[in-house]
Amino acid sequence: MISKKLLMLLAILFGISISVQAQIIVDENNETDEEDELIVTDKSGHEEVIDFPEAMTYDLDSLLNEYMAKTYLTEEDCNLKNENPYYPVETYIERLSRMPTVMEMAHNNVVQNFIDRYAQRLRGTVSYCLGAGNFYMPIFEEALETYQVPLELKYLPVIESALNPRAVSRVGATGLWQFMLATGKQYDLKINSLVDERRDPIKASYAAAHLLSDLYKVFGDWNLVIAAYNCGPGNVSKAIQRSGGSKDYWQIYPYLPRETRGYVPAFIAANYMMTYYSLHNICPMASRLPAQTDTVMVSKKIHFEQIASVLHLDIEMIRALNPMYRRDIIPANPDEQYALRLPLTDVNKFIEQEDAIANYRASELLTNRIQVEVNDYTPTYYHKSKRSWKKGRKGRIGRHSKARRGSKSKARWRSKARGGKKKSSKRRRRR
To answer: Which candidate in 160, 197, 259, 305 is catalytic?
Structure first.
């Protein structure tokens, strides 16, 4: 018998099933660029179109334009040939079976199609993700370990966001783990006009690990968990029901939304490529890890420009280290402090000069006023009437306007007209 706690968890998850990480827009009539889809042929020759994960279609140049990539990733010469070698199917099956994972890493023609796409057309994106992974994988592993989630799920953000913390999907999913707004708030991520913790690599990773753990309590199978992460637990439950009750992802596969059909195969293929990239002649981008950083709690409202100017720091670096602040403003106050991440050598400088930073060009950069005075001047209005001008109290003038008097005269005229008819009728009766 299902416990009350599990039923409550199920209700919460189903309540947000529409808004969970879904990058899905189900429109079978939509024309899709071939970069965004895969065509898979089954044993009987039937062709099926599968949506490709949105993040893996991002333009590589835009990914490399991010501060962390520009500053700490470099495309160095590689001794490997820039070509994908041929391997028989048995080799892929054997390699997948050797991966030390809790999750099932099964091989089939759908998984193979995704591996081929990564190894050929998306070689540059794989190289970028391998380099960027040096920044993010330790954070992901720590969060997943905290909630006892399999560590192979650290590659989920590869297909969710291509490891871009500022990524926003076409339906508004945001950050490395692509949280929708309602789901992010459900897992205690602060989201408002100035702050979006879905972009915070650390907080979003712990929220994602928590969500994955909750989904496993419902479905008890990790393939179903990441399918539900993509399209919501409601869609997965419907697929299970339509399949006759099977809880095997590959059995409920035909009943899932089109993009989710490719989601688990894309995840398996990402695990394969992040493990065996060198066997496909892919060189990871060389990374130079940034200098050590630390956080300081801020208790005053501060703009990034103030920090950059007073401490002589690159504002792009401050933005890269603090992607959760949407408009370069830390909306802190003594009752609600916010964390600011800075290079380790600059943390003490910030503490020593916090007052000077908060006062620097404050009226210019922080334009929202706390208190304002109302203009209590009583204006003089000019009217084109017999009364050439009139000064009203508290601005309430013109109560006896021409239009209003006209409306009264019309009413009198109507009453006279009606009264005239009544009088004439009385006279006729007397006669």
So the answer is: 160
